[in-house]
Amino acid sequence: MAWTSLTTLFNPPPKKVRGMMNSTRVSGRHLGTTALGGLVGGIVMAMLMMLATTLTGKGPLAPLYAIAATFHRTWTTAQGVQAGPLLLGAMLHMMSSIIYGVVFGLLAAALSLRQRGAGATVLAAMLWGLAILLLNQLIVLPVVDPALVSATAGGIFLWWAVSHLMFGLALGFIVARRPLAAAQPTASAHLHPAA
Fold first, then answer.
1. Phi, psi (deg, nearest 5) at residue 184
2. 105, pLDDT greater than 80
3. Residues 96, 38, 170, 82: is their CA dihedral positive or negative?
4. pTM, entire model
5. Which of the four, 82, 88, 100, 186, has the lowest number of CB atoms within 10 Å?
6. Are the C-beta atoms of residues 110 and 90 closer than 8 Å to each other?
7. Is 147 exposed, middle or buried (0-12, 13-18, 19+ CB in 10 A)?
8. pLDDT confidence of residue 193
9. Whole-angstrom Cα distance, residue 106 to residue 83?
10. CA-CA distance, 108 to 193, in Å (whole number)?
């Protein structure tokens, strides 16, 4: 098997996808970075919401219990430390944050956001955070977790919106800070090294 064939096998050319502004290959490193960005954004968001619910007298664990209410509606009123709903709420929130981070990463790659600069990437991620808020608050949560919709209504909704912006800020900052991948050498460069 020729070296060119091996190079093509392990570094296939980017596929053209109809409807995308720029067809690009998404590396595992890029997806890992966006997953990390989603995780950090989720932690920042959770910390902000825990602060907000503490200041409003609901307690710091109220956001995690409200998320856990996806599976058992009465957990939204849990008090103190209850390991089951607490861990379930944290796990569900972090997994959702990672998934939303990876989806943003795929969109960012498809739209070549990083080539437009760090500011554009961060701004797009913050807008992504607001889009997640609207999608969840208006479509997803009323079906799967009405208790969380109720918990985030009223005076705490502003905190809820700001926490989504902060999720996007953290996600965008991490994605924008990752160095751009170096250009891959071509097969001919391996076969005919420069003298």
1. -75, 135
2. yes
3. positive
4. 0.75
5. 186
6. no
7. buried
8. 52
9. 34
10. 34
